[in-house]
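Why should sequence recovery work at all? Because a backbone constrains its sequence more than one might expect. Tight turns favour small or flexible residues, buried strands favour hydrophobic ones, and helices have their own preferences. The token representation captures these environments compactly. In the example below, the structure is given first.
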């Protein structure tokens, strides 16, 4: 840190992203990307003609993209806004709906960025511990007097909350915004989008990074009542009005319009997940019931950190979090069948 770095952020602990080796010498199962390329229409949408228009700014309203998302989810365009990855959208929601007096409530074991953003924005965290089996204790979510973040399915556990529980949280916190981060919902979760018309305090945030094979394009979106969406747009237009670039707008539209490809990819990932989970259980691994595109697995024989390093030596990258209650677990992205067979073979060789 230089002596010029602002003192107010001297304690900031940035989020550590999963390793992104640029030469692909690894089987990469560490950052929950899709093993499949983007929908074929994405490649057609990003033509040389479109690249030649990059000297012009993108549409600050992302009108065509917003309309495509609204259409896909049965919403009106004013119920949708987009951002540079759902990370940015989530940051906007924290900026809009939290402050020193309005904490953010979230689980002790969940997506690490929430904590980082809270410290960056000077927002207090209200930490709600998961039960011993990593399930959510919904009794803790009543009258919180905080903006509430529900990650559904949760990361890195993959555990899903039924819609009835989300509805309970919405009803128990009528004067606070409840954000449901649905980054992984397309692999078998139940989306809260269907509740938007009934709950004015609900914001659903999704991403094209995982289920639509566009992690590198950076595209996420929020869905909710038009006033909440307008609030998020106030933040966006006070920060970076051109936050979604021209090529990503086009890629996002093409991805939204190809429902068959979307279903084929998410279905294949879910099927591979369930097959590999069954094999790992047979080998003695402890697993949660993951409805996401990753497994949260614990070997009965090799500690988590050691297994992570041994897999890396064998050319397979997975994610290990050196934190309480997580240190013996690995978060393993569900890749292609071939990649997962290589993982299972490596685990057998290692005696895991
Ligand atoms: C991956 C992820 C995100 C962020 O995804 P973007 O690539 O920024 O769209 C947000 N929340 C959770 C829980 C995630 O796992």
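From this structural description, the recovered sequence reads:
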């Amino acid at each position: 840190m230089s002596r010029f770095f602002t003192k107010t952020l001297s304690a900031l602990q940035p989020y550590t992203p999963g390793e992104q080796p640029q030469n692909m010498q690894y089987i990469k199962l560490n950052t929950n990307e899709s093993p499949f390329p983007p929908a074929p229409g994405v490649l057609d949408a990003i033509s040389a003609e479109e690249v030649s228009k990059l000297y012009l700014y993108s549409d600050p309203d992302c009108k065509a993209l917003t309309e495509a998302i609204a259409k896909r989810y049965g919403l009106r365009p004013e119920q949708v806004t987009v951002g540079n990855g759902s990370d940015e959208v989530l940051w906007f929601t924290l900026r809009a709906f939290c402050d020193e007096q309005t904490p953010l409530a979230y689980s002790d074991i969940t997506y690490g960025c929430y904590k980082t953003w809270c410290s960056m924005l000077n927002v207090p965290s209200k930490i709600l511990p998961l039960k011993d089996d990593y399930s959510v204790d919904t009794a803790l979510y009543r009258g919180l007097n905080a903006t509430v973040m529900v990650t559904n399915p949760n990361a890195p556990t993959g555990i899903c909350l039924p819609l009835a529980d989300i509805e309970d949280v919405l009803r128990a916190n009528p004067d606070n915004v409840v954000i449901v981060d649905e980054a992984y919902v397309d692999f078998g979760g139940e989306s809260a989008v269907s509740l938007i018309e009934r709950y004015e305090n609900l914001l659903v945030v999704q991403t094209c990074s995982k289920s639509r094979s566009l992690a590198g394009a950076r595209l996420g979106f929020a869905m909710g009542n038009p006033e909440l969406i307008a609030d998020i747009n106030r933040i966006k237009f006070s920060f970076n009005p051109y936050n979604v670039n021209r090529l990503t707008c086009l890629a996002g539209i093409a991805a939204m319009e190809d429902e068959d490809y979307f279903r084929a990819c998410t279905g294949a990932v879910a099927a591979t997940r369930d097959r590999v989970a069954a094999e790992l259980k047979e080998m003695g691994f402890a697993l949660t019931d993951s409805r996401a595109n990753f497994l949260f697995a614990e070997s009965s024989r090799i500690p988590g950190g050691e297994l992570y390093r041994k897999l890396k030596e064998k050319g397979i990258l997975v994610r290990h979090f050196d934190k309480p209650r997580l240190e013996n677990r690995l978060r393993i992205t569900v890749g292609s069948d071939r990649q997962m067979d290589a993982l299972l073979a490596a685990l057998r060789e290692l005696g895991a």
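A few observations help interpret the result. The chain has a mean pLDDT of 96.
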